[in-house]
Amino acid sequence: MATWQDEHVHIRRMAPEDYEEAYALWEHTPGMHLQSLNNTYGGIALLLSKNPDSCFVATDPEGKVIATALGATDGRKGYLYHVAVDEQWRGHGIGTTLINRIYDVFKAIGIVKIGILVVADNIEGQEFWKKQGWNTRPDVIYFDHDL
């Protein structure tokens, strides 16, 4: 898959080496909750190894990570994780470009349904996903369990 580039931003597949910069971005993104053990270096590296073609970063002209979008699939349904754009780079279509890349990968492998979890108090995130054409599921209550 080719990379997208304009004079300001370069988009490419995420690598484990991007973890520290990506995590710093996530820590500074309102509404991004990182309490899960899945958000460790090992957890993200595992996600990348299982989904190498559907996890992306955007970098600025100096190569600093300014946006991320991770796509993963269970073979039947796709999921988006850690979609984040540095505040000073928002409004340039970077987030939309990243998720469209993931959509293309998912379509190519036959995934027809995608889900994302947005924290209830992340109003800005909810508005972003609504503008992207996503619908809420009032019929579902999400549960999780740490092993």
TrEMBL record:
CDD domains: NAT_SF. The keyword Oxidoreductase does not apply. Pfam families: Acetyltransf_1. Residues 9-147 form the N-acetyltransferase domain. The keyword Acyltransferase applies. GO terms for molecular function: acyltransferase activity, transferring groups other than amino-acyl groups. Keywords: Acyltransferase, Transferase. This is Acetyltransferase. It comes from Bifidobacterium reuteri DSM 23975.
